[in-house]
Amino acid sequence: MVEPVAWVALIVLLSAAATDVVLLYSGRLALRGSRTTSRMMSLGDENPVTLHIINEGGYKIFSDIYDEIPYQFQMRNFFLHLELEPGQEETVTYHLRPVVRGEYDFGVVNAITSTVIGLASRRVMIAEPKMVPVYPSIIQMKKYELLAFARISTFEGIKKVRKIGHSYEFEKIRQYNQGDDLRSINWKATSRRNQLMVNQYEDERSQQVYSIIDKSRSMHMPFHELSLLDYAINTSLVISNIALQKFDKTGLITYSHRIGTTLPAERSEMQLKKILNALYHEKPQSFEANFDLLYRAVKNVIHSRSLIFIYLNFESMYAMERALPVLKKINHMHLLVVMIFENTELISYSHKKPEFVSDIYAQTIAMKLLNDKKQIVAKLRKYGIQTILSRPEDLSINTVNKYLELKSRGLI
Question: Backbone phi, then psi, for 368, in 5-degree steps?
Fold first, then answer.
């Protein structure tokens, strides 16, 4: 009696499996999809990737979606489970944060599809491979451009700078408004019009702004998975864009044991693209920085007084003393702003409650290193070199604020 039942069950199972296979491999299964990314990804930012999937078949399907994400992200367990009715569309967006510049290769998007029967499954490729380059952060560049030109900003870190005096580039004479600088009153025009008239000045334009980036081994240190070099690269792109929008000329110099990129300051439409491409190709070097070569490059490339932002990392007083003579010479010829990185991990570690005697010893060393960094900043300022000690994640904010401050004070 058991044998006929078993045969019936086997026949039913085989029939169901055959029906499932026919449904999956017949022309009635029509799963379509696409992957959408930006033309280029931004370094250190959350970049959206969108999967659009539609069931064009005539029956309900179940799909596990596997996107072959670039190996740099080391994501091997990414998948999405979807249940799609006939004609139903689904759009799913996830985010990727690249921390290394370069080319990122997306593979195909695989959909492991089954029907309601669930005895068989079929792999369907719904998107083709695609290469997306990761450039210095375009997202940050646009973000700080908007904030720098906003009249009122509520974002933390962006501050309005009180304008001290004005530049000497005359624009026009206009009627006095409450709050105008009384020193700008044009008394001759006032007497002619019988009402208060003031001279209006505009910010001086076509000043030169240079970003100089140290690529030596001291800039390899990572914070939040991004190296100090990449923080400096992102900030250089941000400040270059804002300077160009403010009608200033902008240029770029990179160095380590030898000079890398040298882009003389220009204000052409292609300058930002040149800077972006140059920053994209910059690679870290495992050598000590040669400051004598840097001085010669500055002297050869920068021929008139300019605002120079130099991004470097001094971890000891000895390292700073080695570079100090060159920094003093550059500061004598130009308006130099030295951007030094704060070691946020040491700060966090020094504030932890010690559990063992060894922790007390290690925290004492950490406090000494932090104090050395403050002494480095103090010594540079002692010699008249403007110096900013910045957390890596606040570097762009602090650089933009400093540029706007110097611009408003008419120092450039």
Answer: -65, -45
